[in-house]
Design a protein that fits this description.
By secondary structure, the chain is α/β, with parallel strands linked by helices. It is about 35% helix and about 25% strand. It contains nine helices and 14 strands.
Length: about 300
């Protein structure tokens, strides 16, 4: 395993998961947050750039990061702001519908920020990565990472409730893609962004900014577009308990494969699916103790 560091840039919430309208579990979460915690659990050096309140929930979040091997050096604590909360309601297919309790306009990144070097990997995405309230700070950080030669992975993760914000944030999305080595998005993301639902047409649009696109589409085949063409990979059907964190851990598994020195896309996608499926078999946002143990055993060999 490489000793390269992974830096996550994204929002943090306390996820409260419901099944049949009854709370099942409360755990710190957030798209990039989930990925970074799983990587930390797998023994990868990680740090999280985010912000939380100075409340008890903020304490829970910071302790959770530390317990899972993630540095909290770049977590901004705001004493007079409440930490964000997300309610995730699982339906009959164990897919989640979310209700968020947060104020994007109040988000600030005014704490210590990392110096990103050429051996670092940067994972970022969701509205946090395009939020006008913190865009100058995030853009400077991403540009510094790009100029230093770091490897950047952008998870678009654009939600329907932000469609009205598109005129204001589209240039931020395009800049994020331009700075990235890989863009990952779902078919749903690009329907919201571009009004497109054809993979080739989506890649034609994305390739103006980034030449590697991972396009996911639920249980349908995964497509990886590069200048050499399009490779497709089947999605293994499994019984799910919860799909919360599935895409986030797909990202984490892909990066883990990169850090292991796996260059073949089929190997990276296989690892990404392995992590994603592991999370779907439990109620939680991160890979299981069983997978962590297996990964560490494999690493020892």
């Amino acid at each position: 395993m490489s000793d390269r560091r992974v830096i996550g840039i994204g929002e943090t919430v306390l996820d409260i998961l419901f099944k049949n309208d009854q709370p099942q579990k409360a755990v710190p979460g957030g798209s990039t947050f989930n990925s970074i915690v799983s990587l930390g659990r797998a023994g990868v050096p990680c740090a999280m750039v985010t912000e939380v309140g100075g409340d008890h929930i903020g304490d829970i979040i910071c302790h959770y990061l530390q317990e899972n091997g993630v540095s909290t050096e770049y977590v901004c604590r705001h004493e007079h702001i409440k930490s964000h909360i997300s309610l995730a309601f699982l339906d009959e297919n164990n897919d989640a519908q979310y209700v968020f309790y947060k104020d994007h306009a109040s988000v600030t990144l005014d704490g210590k920020l990392p110096e990103i070097g050429e051996r670092d990997v940067v994972l970022f995405g969701s509205f946090f990565a395009i939020n006008p309230a913190i865009r100058p700070v995030v853009a400077n950080l991403l540009n510094q990472a790009h100029k230093s030669g770091a490897w950047l992975y952008y998870d678009v993760n654009f939600r329907k409730n932000h469609i009205a914000d598109l005129p204001e944030v589209m240039s931020n999305i395009e800049e994020n893609m331009t700075l990235s080595n890989v863009v990952r998005g779902s078919m749903e993301d690009f329907e919201y962004l571009f009004g497109l639902h054809d993979g080739d047409a989506i890649y034609q649009k994305v390739s103006r900014y980034c030449t590697t696109l991972i396009l996911t589409d639920g249980a349908r085949r995964i497509r990886v577009y590069t200048p050499n063409g399009c490779e497709t990979f089947p999605v293994q059907a499994i019984e799910t308990i919860s799909t919360v964190g599935a895409g986030d851990n797909f990202n984490a598994g892909y990066i883990y494969a990169l850090l292991q020195g796996l260059h073949d896309q089929s190997q990276r996608i296989e690892m990404a699916q392995r992590w994603s499926q592991d999370v779907c078999r439990q109620i939680g946002n991160n890979i299981s103790d069983e997978l962590v143990s297996l990964l560490k055993t494999t690493k020892a060999k």
